[in-house]
What does this fold into?
Amino acid sequence: MSTNNLGLTLEQSVKYQGRWGQWAWMFHRLSGLGILLFLTIHIVDTSFVYFYPPLYEEALKLYKSVPFGVGEIFLAAALLYHAFNGLRVALVDLRPELTTRQRELWIGVWALFLVTFIPAAYIMGRSVLRSMGINF
Amino acid sequence: MARTTLSDQVTIRQAKPRSRHFESYAWFFMRLSGISLILLAVGHLVMQHITHDVHDVTVGWVLGQRWDLTWIRVWDFGLLTLAFVHGLNGFRAVIQDYIHNATALKLVKLLLIAAGLVILLMGASAIIFAPMPR
It folds into this structure.
């Protein structure tokens, strides 16, 4: 009985072998939790524009740093995946006959993700590199 | 060492719905807000990171170039409320899967609501009360 909830969750996640459906669900959770973490921090820092602007300037310094710049690219990835996968979930709820086409829809989610994320990552990555003095 | 089986760890909760329709409304809200957020959140990403650069953001820019426009404040207010409530409700779904002690779950939910309200009020009051230039 030494296994805790987290250990059990991780153990069963590996054992379950739910293939792509399980991965879709797991990525949706992880991306959602990541976005919520950033959103919470971002609401508080943005509120300082009104409550205490000097602290907002401090937060901006942090956002303009390279690690946060890289983090923002991951945030964009999480947001885009969560958006398109959530659309798939909502679509299947709305049109249950699509349950038989889940695999195609899943491929569609990744197609939409790649089409939107690659240009976004290029533009955001370029801006991070520029802040380091690397221009191209 | 005895093997831990799934049935040793999973708690079966007595269903005791407070409101008969609450989970249906929550489900519907997640779909409605989710679809709205595709526009609001992805649009926000495009505005802040693609057509503009985070490295150029200053307090003056936020007040003078963004929050001087009413439609941006309305957008931000919609994004704030929908995204945060959507996220907190998603978080509720996650903790319900992993916290099996009813008292602990109730406590965490209360904390979540209290902290959520404070943060939501902070964000909302900034969007509403931050001074308009001119």
Q: What stands out?
A: The radius of gyration of chain A is 19 Å. Chain A has a mean pLDDT of 92.
